[in-house]
Amino acid sequence: MLPVERVNRIKGLIEKRKNIKISELSHILNVSEMTIHRDLKPLVDEGFILKTFGGITLAKSDLNSQNENLCVVCNRMIHSKLAYRLILPNNNIEMTCCGHCGLIRERQLGNKVIQSICQDFLRQTTLSAKLAWFVFDSSIDLGCCQPQVLTFERKEHAEKFIKGFDGVTVSFDHALDLIYKKMNETNSCHNHHT
Ligand SMILES: [Zn+2]
Ligand SMILES: [Zn+2]
Of all helices (H) and strands (E), which one includes residue 45? Predict the structure, then answer.
């Protein structure tokens, strides 16, 4: 197999699997690990993959191509419209299905989170979660986690939204407190403590 063919095979594998071990690639492609490292170099340089301990992981996390991914908190399928991403040290990215799970994960990880990205519910643009406005208790049911949390970039959009669909608008810090309170209200057992 030509090196260029091998690189294409690797690209295909990593796109499907999201992460894979060097030793496994070496086995699948029947070449030495050193050869695999050489093949990976251009992919690392162009930012297509990231090197992890003993393996590689897909770097480009295009939201629309990640529908197969599952929420790190509740294992639901992630829908790109509601997805919430947490950027962690060492280029690790975690995805949750919605703002609800995003906030829960924020509480679990605390200041390990470098940055979080959520989406404006109306405009489908991405924004930093710390600057977002969180709407709780609206009457529209999107079928994801309860209590439902929606995110908005602009406060006036959130306020207009709750005029039509009820709910309350809170800032990021308040949302972290509120999700915690609400989880304790709805769960008689306290297994959700973190
Ligand atoms: Zn979830
Ligand atoms: Zn959810």
Answer: helix 33-45
Q: How far apart are CA 177 and CA 158, in angstroms?
A: 19
Question: Helix %, strand %, coil % for the chain, to 5?
Answer: 40, 20, 35
Least Cα distance to 20 among 54, 53, 55, 48 occurs for: 55
Ligand found nearest the CA of 147: 2
The per-residue pLDDT string of the chain (194 residues; one tens digit each, 9 = 90 and over) reads: 888 899 999 999 998 898 899 999 999 999 999 999 999 998 888 878 888 888 888 876 554 444 457 899 998 988 888 999 999 998 889 999 999 999 999 999 999 999 999 999 999 899 999 999 999 999 999 999 999 999 999 999 999 999 999 999 999 999 999 999 998 886 555 444 44
What's the pTM? 0.63
Q: What is the Å distance from ligand 1's center to 83 Cα?
A: 9
- In this structure, which ligand is nearest to the CA of 76? 1
Ligand nearest to the CA of 143: 2
Domains and CATH numbers, the chain: 3-58 (1.10.10.10), 63-186 (no CATH)
